[in-house]
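Form P-L/3: holo structure prediction, ligand iron/sulfur cluster.
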Amino acid sequence: MKILISSCLLGEDVRYDGGNSSFAYNPNFSFSEKELFMDILCENEVYSLCPEIKGGLNTPRKPAEITSAEKPFKVETINKDDVTINFLLGAKKALELCLEENIKIALLKSKSPSCGNIQIYDGTFSNTLVQGQGLTARLLNENGIKVFNETQLKELEQFIKTI
Ligand code: SF4
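OUTPUT (holo model):
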């Protein structure tokens, strides 16, 4: 099975702060969760992608949040720079890759304004989470690609068995 995975979860230093969100080294996850993550990597064909880098942003970069979560979307940095076009472009490139490679599943980093699939920050840079999706997760979902985050590995494993 082909799976698109957020590059930062794989340990690539693509985050806004120049670091990564490596699942394998995250102390918040148990050994068995890490084993499941590694099994998923080993048993499937992994496509690594960071939408924000694909959208033309650099690392490190200013943190950004979605300030308009409905169309027309708006994404701004903490300095109020408008980076919406970069986020939309990154989402489009992620979708293009999925369509070209017939990828039906994505494992994306939670809470990100690009990759979050259930919650995102509310646009006030006050560390406040709200229900919502990042722009890439949303576009993939709208196009029939099933999106999971790193806390949903068991659901992802079950889903793979059904297709
Ligand atoms: S855009 Fe997605 S892949 Fe890139 S750093 Fe943010 S959460 Fe990770």
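COMMENT: DSSP finds five helices and eight strands in the chain.
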